[in-house]
Amino acid sequence: MNKPTKLYLIKSLAPWMMEELISFSTFTTFKLIFLKEVQDFYNNDLEILKKNGIEYHIKPFIKIPNIKDILFAIWTIISHPNLFFKKKSAVWTLHGTFWFLFLDKKLVQNITSVHSQFASQATVISWYLKKRYHIDYYFTFHAHSIYCNNKLFPLVLKDCNTAFSISEFNIRYVEKEYSVSSDKIILARLGLKLPDLKQNIKDEKLPFILGFMSNLEPKKGIPYLLEAFLKLHTKFPGKYELWIAGKGEELPFIESFISSHKMNGGIKILGRIRDQKKIDFFQGIDVFVLPSIIIPNDMDGIPVVLMESIGYGKPIISTNVSGIPEICINDYDGYLIPEKNVDELVKAIEKISSDKEKLKEFSLNSIKLAKRDYDLIKNSENKLKEMKWLDN
């Protein structure tokens, strides 16, 4: 077998990223480098990649970097002092530089192009590989690395072959906020492996189940969801149930809220779920609710969980934040409400739960939208074509 000439660089792995990796591996072979440890959560996925012929390396670092690489990095940093004008950009630059220096360069000897996720550490490495070893690079940018006045972004965009944006909103955002041209940017939506919906039959008996699944972090608007549910629970005891899946820093707040309002019977905490448990989650809920909000230097892009929700034919309720209106289309596949508005969230839930015909209409439209814009296989193939990564 010929050695792979393509490299995929990852700092921190996420489920949606693994889905893309597995999808890519059905079309082509490539080398995969994880800059940090990979959780046991992904062991089965790594086995799939291995069976598909993907060579992967976890933290492939050497003890002593090449002196020429060190001198090159020093010169590069001195030449770009603006990268250190913002704390986050400075940290990403230093981390990326450190990992570039200690990366085992034997792994890139046959590489002709590299793809990385986010305009942060992994793309800093890609940028160095282009400058130092003349390796083409592509990167995909998301909310996390552009809504923070990232001084790296204009630089890595200028020197890349192509940058991929997961939303139209993000393209408009970087044009305005970073004063850059979008000539090198291509819309490349994420997606999901569309599930078989033949068995996706929801029992119409009460309670009406609201689903929430995500990282439990401030930008997800969890307090507004809980307040809305409390109002519904008080007004209609036993009519609604809320399932919360995920883990993160907001979990203690959620547990405290449930305890203080004696709502153990109305709210279920499911923890982090995947595989059959995730399927059961989507088949069990009536509507998916994600009341995302804007916080300082951060907000959602197009959350992958919304893609999963419409893939399962679920109506969605979300907020008018960043690229979310591109997937939560008001009165088409759900309801779009203002952020941080508990009353509007309550109204949307009451409205959708009281109209079975609208619920069915939204469900059908969710499936249509998922097939049109968020088919992982189709989107992966298109992205690979743009990078010229498809095997002949």
The CATH topology of the largest domain is Rossmann fold
What number of structural domains do the residues give?
A: 2
Biggest sheet, strands in spatial order? Answer: 3-2-1-4-5-6-7
Q: Tell me roughly what share of residues is in helical segments.
A: 40-55%
Structural class: alpha/beta
What is the CATH class name of the largest domain?
A: Alpha Beta
- The proportion of residues in beta strands is 15-25%
SSE arrangement, N to C: EHEHEHHEHEHEHEEHEHEHEHEEHHH
Low-confidence stretches: none
Q: Rg from C-alpha positions? A: 22 Å
CATH superfamily of the largest domain: Glycogen Phosphorylase B
Architecture per CATH nomenclature, i.e. the level-2 architecture of the largest domain = 3-Layer(aba) Sandwich
What is the residue-mean pLDDT, rounded to a whole number? 94
What's the N-to-C terminus distance? 15 Å
For the secondary structure, the number of strands is: 13
Number of helices: 14
Secondary-structure topology with pairs:
Elements: E1 6-10, H1 15-25, E2 31-34, H2 43-51, E3 55-58, H3 67-79, H4 87-102, E4 113-117, H5 121-133, E5 136-141, H6 153-159, E6 162-165, H7 168-177, E7 185-187, E8 208-213, H8 222-235, E9 240-245, H9 251-260, E10 267-271, H10 275-284, E11 287-290, H11 304-311, E12 316-319, E13 334-337, H12 342-353, H13 356-373, H14 376-387
Parallel strand pairs: 1-2, 1-4, 2-3, 4-5, 5-6, 6-7, 8-9, 8-11, 9-10, 11-12, 12-13
Helix pairs in contact: 1-14, 4-5, 8-12, 11-13
